[in-house]
Amino acid sequence: xxxxxxxxxxxxxxxxxxxxxxxxxxxxxxxxxxxxxxxxxxxxxxxxxxxxxxxxxxxxxxxxxxxxxxxxxxxxxxxxxxxxxxxxxxxxxxxxxxxxxxxxxxxxxxxxxxxxxxxxxxxxxxxxxxxxxxxxxxxxxxxxxxxxxxxxxxxxxxxxxxxxxxxxxxxxxxxxxxxxxxxxxxxxxxxxxxxxxxxxxxxxxxxxxxxxxxxxxxxxxxxxxxxxxxxxxxxxxxxxxxxxxxxxxxxxxxxxxxxxxxxxxxxxxxxxxxxxxx
Length: 278
What we know:
- By secondary structure, this protein is α/β, with parallel strands linked by helices.
- The chain contains 12 helices and 7 strands.
- The strands form 2 sheets. The chain has a 4-stranded mixed beta sheet with strand order 2-1-3-4, sandwiched between helices. A 3-stranded parallel beta sheet has the order 5-6-7, with helices on both faces.
- A hairpin with a 2-residue loop joins strand 3 (58-61) and strand 4 (64-66).
- The protein starts with a strand and ends in a 7-residue tail after the last helix.
- Residues 89-105 and 267-278 have low confidence and may be disordered.
């Protein structure tokens, strides 16, 4: 279920730096090859042949060889973002100008594309599968956290070359604001954005919509699937029951619980005088 790559990771199970690299490659849902090297440097023949040295946590992708986890991780994120752009841009077009962060904002995509904008909808890392696949195996959603999503979107925008207009809904709106804070967009539009830290207004309807996930503290590492009734309350409450059911069947996937928990914990700390960062 991952993006096919030519990456080979020369590593050892006991190496903490290798664990860090494996986790990030897994978070990005990249398919890669692992070569386990022995403890003795003198016996590390494969990594020596690939890189000319015997350090493990060595990452090879074709002609590119890296041997430092602090370099491997950002390069992997950048390459994943660039691969998405190549896949979505089948032929030369003008520089991208609009980047909605939710792929299901179909009417907005059509609206801006009709006005001559190049519209890209990267979504969140690892979520390239279909609705049916993510319902059947929600592991990609369980792996996400705020930092992973923000790093991916940061790399995606930087890879465009031209600062875009960035649009996002809900948490996507919050990520759009954070990207704007980093100076990465010519303009930013948030649609019903999640509030940043310190903005403590939280309607009861938001709490109720989030309750299926947040009510159980043990849910953080899971991916909770809303029922059709819960989905209608949270997302399609202006639709008829039949319309809502059709949208649920077509679009609903499990929640990335850890992202929601991190956002809620941030607001809790801000409300009671704690420090927050993102």
